[in-house]
Give the backbone structure.
Amino acid sequence: MTPEIIEKVTRLSCFENPQDIVALGGGLTNVNLRVRDGDQQYVVRLGTDIAEHGVMRWNELALSQAASVAGFSPKVVHHETGVLVLEFLNAQTFTEADVRNPANLPRIVSRIAQVHRDLADHLTQPVLAFWPFQVNRTYAARLRADGSRHTSALPAMLAQLDQLQSAVGQIDMVIGHNDLLAANILDDGDKLWLIDWEYGGFNSPLFDLAGLASNNALSETQERAMLSQYFETDPDKHWRAYSAMKCTSLMRETLWSMTSEIHSELDVDYASYTSENMDRLTSALADFAQT
């Protein structure tokens, strides 16, 4: 936290006497702070549009507001350019191990299904689509233009992407969260909450399920149980399309990290994150080839 950030937060019109301003960990594209004002606590998210990642804050705001009204996310208290203020939840932030916990995973899948069924009804303005195949091709074009050190890997990835899109085939469309990292799932002991809607938008439900699995190292047994629960049918019916979307999700995370290596100003080791996700993608593609 810099003095400029602290001053910006203390001047926000939604606060009367902001105190105890502390940084919250976990943000890869924002500065997140916890603030006490009187007997209430709030989260302040500081971040502007991120063109290279397709992040538009008006879209995040629209989805955050809809998710708040629907009861999936904390209340939006205040917003202005580059600032989003939310109620602070007294809740546990999940880890990857928490997501894999047999007591939690069915709850998470049920919550995702509720979001997919209900959230669109609470939107009051248009929002973006998040079509991962287009997202990945856009990342590749930007990486070539920016002279990324990973340029030589892009042609093979794009050829694989064509095959993956064909395997996914026709889709249903829902409002997806599209960034189901463990840290974006909170448990208050009664219900689960989803936070951080930067990448939210219309998408296939398979992307959230695939992202949940790939981001949290679910076993194949857990993945099949997840599909069976979500679709209420034999998981084999969706397995190939799901496996293709899982590869697509991992490719997106890899390209996202490659792009962040160039553009991000946050103190994050994106090179290591790229390497980690490339290994995951290579493994997932090998598994997909066997489907």
